[in-house]
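Section 5: illustrative case.
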């Protein structure tokens, strides 16, 4: 394949990764070499001669390691601008690099909110100055149905909070939601700009908050924001998506009922995701880690875990996201319901899923599809998600033979904690590469690397 000059960065030194176990697009796992030139993969072969490496190029010995396409996290909250005391784009991108995530899609609930082209342009400028991995941003919907929702660029899509939100980003009335789904849609327009929904029924949540008021046990969070609240909102979003043939993405699906709904009735233009938290944690976690287990939508039952896993394995659920939403330990220590919902995840998501693969619950190739290839495909991100000539040199070398625990003293996220602390995981990244540049290696981040803004094709 001939690499497009527009895809390459001429002044980047070549990079040759030798004798790694490569996860190929056809699901083969085979030992070989990968050459990256100008930030783009130019060769994937069993052996590449040293003389093909340009002057100043570098070789990395991948012997005993597994080479995967860099992970793409399609749902994160990195808190900048306005909430940098919890996290900022630099610390979050460092955490991504350590976790093998080479690209992220970030949410609009910052201060100011990301709801206009001006907000988007300002956030892109911030990211360009700070991020060591690639970046893209959602634009937020409000009840005003601003025209910028259809014209802002570049953006991965429109985010709608149907519940679990206060202020302008909460859009919970069906007539307003109907207008948002209808915007820009004509009989010949196709699925249109993607709408991604946080699907919880805010009216039901408010009623149940009154019903269970005064209970400080954080486990009540899963009772208040129950399975029914999630199902009702997902049913409404699906109804509107079908009415207008609007591209729909269900964020952080958490319930068995939603998974079975999608199994029965999932149009071709609808996708959904699940978090490692909703696969691997459940309501038992409240007794172990208290409010650190509090997130939106909440953790569910072991039965929900199992149904979600099966839906993921069967392709009903399309990919993995972290919903990385950090809060300080001081904030999380507040009694429920003053404690905020959300937990970090970008540093642990890939090792968590690879550990499940080694345990036999899925395969390494499936993890690659869920965390890289499918995300690139469904968001229309060109040249991402595969190790093949012409694709960008976003790669991660992982060690699938060594286990170590999740430990807060190793974390780079500013919040400094994980709900998975103490879990013994394998698949930790050894080297992370963004656009052909080594951004993370053996515990150290190269802060001089800069990621690039993602583009999104229909």
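Designed sequence:
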């Amino acid at each position: 394949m001939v690499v497009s000059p527009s895809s390459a960065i001429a002044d980047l030194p070549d990079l040759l990764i030798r004798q790694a176990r490569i996860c190929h697009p056809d699901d083969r796992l085979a030992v070989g070499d990968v050459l990256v030139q100008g930030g783009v993969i130019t060769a994937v072969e069993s052996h590449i001669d040293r003389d093909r490496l340009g002057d100043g190029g570098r070789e990395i010995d991948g012997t005993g390691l597994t080479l995967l396409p860099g992970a793409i996290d399609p749902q994160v909250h990195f808190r900048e601008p306005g909430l940098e005391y919890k996290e900022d784009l630099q610390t979050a991108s460092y955490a991504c690099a350590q976790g093998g995530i080479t690209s992220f899609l970030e949410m609009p609930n910052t201060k100011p909110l990301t709801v206009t082209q001006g907000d988007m342009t300002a956030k892109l400028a911030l990211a360009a100055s700070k991020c060591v991995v690639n970046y893209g941003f959602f634009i937020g919907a409000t009840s005003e149905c601003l025209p910028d929702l259809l014209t802002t660029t570049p953006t991965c899509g429109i985010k709608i909070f149907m519940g679990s939100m206060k202020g302008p980003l909460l859009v919970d009335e069906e007539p307003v939601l109907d207008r948002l789904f209808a915007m820009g849609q004509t009989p010949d327009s196709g699925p249109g700009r993607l709408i991604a929904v946080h699907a919880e029924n805010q009216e039901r949540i408010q009623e149940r908050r009154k019903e269970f008021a005064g209970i400080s046990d954080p486990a009540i969070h899963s009772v208040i924001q129950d399975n029914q609240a999630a199902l009702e909102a997902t049913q409404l979003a699906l109804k509107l998506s079908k009415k207008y043939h609007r591209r729909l993405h269900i964020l952080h699906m958490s319930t068995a009922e939603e998974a079975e709904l999608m199994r029965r009735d999932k149009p071709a233009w609808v996708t959904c995701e699940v978090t490692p938290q909703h696969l691997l944690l459940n309501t038992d976690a409240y007794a172990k880690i208290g409010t650190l287990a509090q997130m939106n939508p909440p953790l569910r039952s072991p039965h929900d875990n199992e149904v979600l896993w099966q839906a993921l394995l069967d392709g009903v659920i399309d990919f993995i996201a972290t919903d990385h939403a950090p809060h300080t330990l001081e904030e999380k220590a507040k009694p429920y319901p003053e404690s905020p919902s959300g937990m970090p995840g970008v540093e642990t998501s890939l090792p968590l899923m690879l550990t499940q693969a080694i345990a036999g619950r899925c395969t390494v190739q499936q993890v690659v599809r869920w965390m890289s290839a499918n995300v690139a495909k469904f968001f229309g991100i060109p040249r991402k998600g595969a190790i093949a000539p012409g694709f960008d040199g976003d790669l991660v070398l992982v060690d699938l033979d060594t286990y170590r625990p999740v430990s807060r003293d190793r974390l780079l996220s500013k919040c400094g904690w994980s709900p998975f602390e103490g879990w013994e995981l394998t698949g930790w990244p050894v080297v992370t590469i963004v656009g052909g540049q080594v951004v993370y290696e053996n515990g150290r981040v190269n802060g001089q690397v800069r990621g690039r803004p993602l583009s999104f094709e229909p």
